[in-house]
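Sharing a chain and its predicted structure for anyone who wants a worked example. Both blocks are below, sequence first, tokens second.
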Amino acid sequence: MLGLVEQERASVQQQSKLARFELSVVPHMGAAYNLARWLTRNDHDAEDVVQEAHLRAYRFFDGFHGGDGRTWLLAIVRNTCYTWLQQNRKPTLELEEEIPELDSGRSNPEALLLRSVDSEMLRQALDDLPVEFREAIVLRELEGLSYKEIGAIAGVPLGTVMSRLARARSRLQKALRGNARQGGAT
């Protein structure tokens, strides 16, 4: 009889854990995929990494003591990405996703072409950044995280976050200026 009561208690605890996990972590899966996508540079690899990170997050959810589920999950995704990158260094594939357009249809064909060229140059410049810089830019500019949150995710001091962002922005500016000059000279 005691075994049955213990099994029921364990089942209720497991259901409670799942419900808390779904409330705290699952809403941030889009951000998790976005970070993994930029770090791995590949859609399928990012999906694999996010799935592994999701399993790790659930497995270690008992160690989550409230707070910001997004920051906690993105730290797990980041660590999972770095582990994956160490084990699977291989050539990267081009991005296939489209950046959403800000202007809806009022643009002429020339403006649309320029915008697509600019988007591709930006993607390439981001892809060319060292992974630590790319990670900081993605978390700050695409995910809108604070410097403090980025530091918590990356496990680095605030000054390091600021330095990485400054260096990443500087490299992006140089890369985009260089591409603009090459495009204008052609």
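Comments welcome. Helices lie at 2-24, 29-40, 43-59, 69-87, 109-128, 131-142, 147-154, 158-185.
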